[in-house]
Design goal:
With about 425 residues, this protein is an alpha/beta fold. It has 2 domains: about 240 residues, Rossmann fold (3-Layer(aba) Sandwich), CATH 3.40.50.2000; about 160 residues, Rossmann fold, CATH 3.40.50. The protein contains 14 helices and 16 strands. The strands form 3 sheets. It has an 8-stranded mixed beta sheet with strand order 3-4-2-1-7-8-9-10, with helices on both faces. α7 packs parallel to α8 and α7 packs across α12. The longest helix has 19 residues. The C terminus is likely disordered.
């Protein structure tokens, strides 16, 4: 029996622009290649303007990734994106290039990981071109409902937002009228209506989309599957657990400013506590944000080491050098991959006590919570973590098993099969027997 074909679509390739959703999508694609039931394909958008632009064929937006004939880059220009309506201005991207791609490969299932830089129009295009192909969409943040990078954080106060409305969104973006936001919501929902199943890696995110109006029967909890990594062996030492690690993208939503303010406090109160910052994409930050980080690092002194970007293969070694993983994000987060990576390597997590972070990390069981955007509370929490005898060992013992990629693929296969079964035409009724004379 030949394999069915599943197409994954994602907004960036981690080889070009690192990120959690991107890393998960590539990991899933590579693991799915071992599936006996589905042959995967991956289309990852890439583009210029500060990104590492791989070679491409003149006149065509598609290019294979290395020698893999099932993995493709899709080039779009950043200035060609309408980031308010989340569409691409040059409609030939859909009507010519992607339509030809779909017509050529005819995937049996299309699983969107993201449509940023490409547009939600892709969903309607798939529905029109492949009416029998089930469509899935993994929701990684809140971009369909929130124009502020999908973070649900207010622009003027930096307060957390539980959900949008045209009036509230206009307060955040006065240049866009409530009517503009009403039309934005209608347009995006019209495309999302073609999705058969939305996969939600946290129940918190699932509830936000249900509140926004996505039919609850289309929303399904399904966490990220991960390929287990082997922790580096380390001696069990009787010492203060003073080494804190940050892993992830360097941007304001990740709470880097909160963390650096915390380390300023700890430089005075507990100078033996040391932060190792491992982060990517600092090169694409606006100049003023980079200057703030540089100034904070200069003020803090010797208890912060900025180690820069890292690759997946380096994670076991880097995790072995620290005691705690801190996740100080200022937005709701969904299901941060770094939490799973910390748990894989036996590292308790100190995180903001909100959203998907609080859902994944049980306070006092396998980690500690602190008040979001509160450097004083984070400093107190880190000191408690470092100074309480036996706490690190107890929290480490409470770390759960991660959701393995093999189990995740088995779950996705069941979901794909279920949706495919709904689309299978009913068998024809048998012809009536001729009357016997």
């Amino acid at each position: 029996m030949s394999k069915r074909r599943v197409l994954f679509v994602v907004h960036n390739h981690p080889a070009v622009r690192p990120g959690g959703a991107e890393a998960y999508a590539l990991e899933l694609y590579r693991a799915m290649r071992e599936s006996p039931a589905y042959e995967p394909m991956l289309v990852a958008r890439v583009g210029p303007h500060g990104e590492i632009e791989p070679p491409r064929h003149p006149g065509a937006p598609f290019s294979t990734v290395g020698d893999d004939q099932n993995e493709y880059f899709l080039f779009t220009e950043t200035e060609g994106c309408d980031f308010f309506m989340e569409t691409y201005r040059d409609k030939s991207l859909y009507t010519t290039y992607i339509a030809d791609f779909l017509q050529t490969f005819k995937p049996d299932v299309v699983h969107f990981q993201h449509t940023h830089f490409m547009g939600y129009d892709l969903i309607s295009l798939v529905k029109r071109m492949l009416p029998d192909a089930p469509i899935l969409y993994t929701l990684h943040e809140y971009l369909p409902m929130c124009h502020r990078d999908g973070q649900l954080v207010r622009t003027k106060t930096e307060a957390l937002c539980l959900g949008p409305s045209p009036r509230r969104c206009n307060e955040c973006f006065p240049d866009w009228s409530p009517q503009n936001f009403f039309l934005r919501e209608l347009r995006i929902k019209s495309h999302l209506a073609h999705v058969d199943t939305f996969l939600c890696p946290s129940n918190f995110l699932l509830e936000r989309y249900a509140d926004w109006g996505i039919p609850r029967e289309k929303l399904r909890f399904e966490d990220y599957g991960r390929v287990p990594q082997t922790p580096r062996p380390a001696p069990i030492e009787s010492r203060r657990r003073t080494r804190v690690g940050f892993f992830g993208q360097i941007n304001p939503y990740k709470g880097v400013d909160v963390l650096l303010k915390t380390m300023e406090i700890l430089a005075r109160e507990a100078p033996d506590i040391h932060l190792y910052m491992h982060g990517a994409n600092i090169d694409v930050l606006p100049d003023d944000q980079r200057e703030l980080i540089d100034e904070a690092l200069a003020r803090i002194g010797d208890n912060v080491t900025f180690a820069g970007a890292y690759g997946p293969a380096q994670v076991p070694r880097l995790m072995s050098t620290i005691d705690w993983v801190v996740v100080p994000s200022r937005w709701w987060e969904n299901s941060p991959l770094v939490i799973q990576e910390a748990f894989m390597h036996g590292r308790p997590v100190i995180c903001s006590g909100i959203g998907g972070m609080a859902e994944k990390v049980a306070h006092g069981v396998n980690g500690l919570h602190f008040g979001v955007s509160n450097p004083d509370d984070l400093a107190r929490t880190i000191r408690t973590a470092a100074e309480t005898p036996g706490l690190w060992e107890r929290l480490r013992d409470g770390i759960p098993q991660i959701y393995r990629m093999d189990d995740h693929i088995a779950s996705l296969t069941r979901i794909y099969d279920e949706l495919m079964g709904r689309r299978e035409p009913a068998p024809a009724a048998p012809a009536p027997l001729a009357a016997v004379g």
